[in-house]
Amino acid sequence: MRDYDLKSNNNLLLTIKTTIMRKLILATVFLLGGFSIQAQDKLNKNAKYEFEVNGNCDMCQSRIQKAAFSVSGVKSATWSIETHKLNLILNEEKANVLEVKKAIAKAGYDTDEVKAASENYSKLPGCCQYDRK
Ligand SMILES: [Cu+2]
């Protein structure tokens, strides 16, 4: 009789342990799932980028910056005539940096990642036709 009681007690303990483990695993899965959804939602509204855009003069500067601003979500675009670097502040909820580079390339300017089509490059005035790399 005593032996029987001990056995059923052990079984009960095992059942409780298994139930607790299942609940813990479920809670962990929910928690991890929640975190990953939050991570996806958190896009940077003021993402900063700096990349090279080839060009020559202040006319190039205004074309490059205008092309960058044509993409909605671009908050700031400053191209340096000296360093050929474009500094960008971008709301990544509206656009990504590749879209900006494509818009600049369409205006005739090579970026580090997207190069301008020859027909767009040749549309630039002679003085703005920079040396292509
Ligand atoms: Cu120019």
Overall structural class, as computed from helix and strand content, comes to alpha+beta
What fold name goes in the CATH topology slot of the largest domain?
Answer: Alpha-Beta Plaits
How many individual domains?
A: 2
Q: Strand portion, in percent?
A: 5-15%
**Portion in helices:** 40-55%
**Average pLDDT figure:** 88
Secondary-structure element sequence?
HEHEEHH
Question: Stretches where pLDDT falls below 50 for ≥5 residues?
Answer: none
The CATH first-level class of the largest domain comes to: Alpha Beta
Short overview:
The chain has 133 residues and is of the alpha+beta class. Helices cover 50% and strands 14% of the residues. The protein has 2 domains: 1-42; 47-128, Alpha-Beta Plaits.
Report on this structure.
- This protein has about 130 residues and is an alpha+beta fold.
- It has 2 domains: about 40 residues; about 80 residues, Alpha-Beta Plaits (2-Layer Sandwich), CATH 3.30.70.100.
- It has 4 helices and 3 strands, in the order αβαββαα.
- Strands 1-3-2 form a 3-stranded antiparallel beta sheet, with helices on one face.
- Strand 2 and strand 3 form a beta hairpin.
- Helix 2 crosses helix 3.
- The longest helix is centred in the N-terminal third of the chain and has 40 residues.
- The radius of gyration is 29 Å and the shape is rod-shaped.
- The model has no long low-confidence stretch (mean pLDDT about 90).
- The structure holds copper (II) ion (CU).
